[in-house]
Amino acid sequence: MRNPDNQLSSFQRLWAFSAVLMVSSCAARPPHETGAFKPSELVELRRLDPSIRLDIRYATTKNFAGRAVYSEARAFLQRPAAEALVRVNKELETLGYRLLVFDGYRPWSVTKLFWDITPREKRKFVANPKKGSRHNRGCAVDLSLWDIATGKEVAMTGAYDEMSPRSYVAYAGGTAEQRAKRDLLRSKMEQHGFKVIPDEWWHFDYQDWRSYRIQNIPFEKL
Prior knowledge:
- By secondary structure, the chain is of the alpha+beta class.
- Helix content is 31%, strand content 16%.
- It has a single domain (4-31, 41-221), classed as 2-Layer Sandwich (Muramoyl-pentapeptide Carboxypeptidase, domain 2), CATH 3.30.1380.10.
- The chain has helices spanning 4-27, 45-48, 79-93, 108-117, 176-190; strands spanning 42-44, 53-54, 76-78, 97-103, 140-147, 152-153, 194-197, 200-206.
């Protein structure tokens, strides 16, 4: 059995390490981009559709960084992506579900922090800050399903932000029901212009992500 004191000490070290890196990430600058981009119009999801559920883990300590990296529990997307997501939510509602959103637009400094604290062998689960993330462009969303009847998050093959094969879209484990719900989410999202990434069943990129610049605006300034 592990020593609880050692566990606490490890968590405290991670928390302190991420706090130092947060300061460093905030001081760093996003990559320079050239070319023509659409004007950014980040909109708050709940203002478009209050029935969309939020579970913004990065505004809490319940995430792999071990600390809150967002100052507010809010979710934003570029307007075309946000409006497409509302349509997905409406279709799912007829089937007894609503969308449960974990994350949308993410400031670039947070992407850099995630890269810096993630072990090299796990970095396929995080975006390289040198290229930026589609979250930084406001065109990526992390989400799952919410069961209206039970009032609970739907069980999938793996947990959100789990860095293991259970997160893979093609993972054949779990139960038949979990795989069916994962595939239902993917099907509805893809019908409305989103595309899942192979390593994360919860992460979907909107079709126009290349049209927007990388941004580093904190939530409180939106």
